[in-house]
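quick one before i forget lol
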Amino acid sequence: MRAWCREKSISGKTTGLVPTMGALHEGHLSLVHAAKNSCDHCVTSIFVNPTQFAANEDLDQYPRPIEDDLAMLRDAGVEAVFMPTADEMYPGGAERHSTSVHPSAVALPLEGIHRPEHFAGVATVVMKLFQAAPSDRAFFGRKDFQQLCVIEHMVRDLNLPIEIVPCDIVREPDGLAMSSRNRYLSDDERQRALCISKSLNLVERAFHDGSRDAKQLESIMADHLSPCDSVDYAVVVDRQTLLPVPKITRNAVALVAARLGATRLIDNRELETE
């Protein structure tokens, strides 16, 4: 894969990388379309990264419909697909892999509390993908907002020669953010999950109506998330630091992580003052 990307670079062409874990949907394809519109060539990676899953998470159950994924990418006009094995990415085994990227402080709150090792695994595998498929730009969705921040900080702090391109969340017609884990939901859970996007809609409306009190906005979310079986967090934080703010004076983001049955979903809404 590295040779293919370097050949394109030597010829003066740009390459866009779309890292995925497979189980593709329209959200992933929107990243592919953005890469194709922005770059001369597009490469998509498919790799279910074991180091970002905790022992009690769904690594073994994570969907891997490889043939369907490849058909979708073929139809989308992707020229190259990088599908490394775990042994190729982690020689000697992921459990014995002793070198990793230590992410910045934006990894500590929110997901960092509920999934403490997650972002070290994410940052490490993304760094490896950047080396294996050296590209001019990499495209990431805003749905995994904290992940996007971690990767942006890694690229900035380590002077990596790649541009990170954030892409908007793609939603189902009823507002549910597209996710590979949506397929786990029962019909009842799928219906109840709509409260997540609805709560964020209400927060955005209150923000545009002039509310800048973070606790007040968080209360709006909490009041409308009762259909969820549990809520890990529903917060309004600073866009740059992901730390709590009593009053919104610069760009912020509302983030939710909640469970419907055994399925954990995340969503967010950016609240821009500028």
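fyi The chain has a mean pLDDT of 96.
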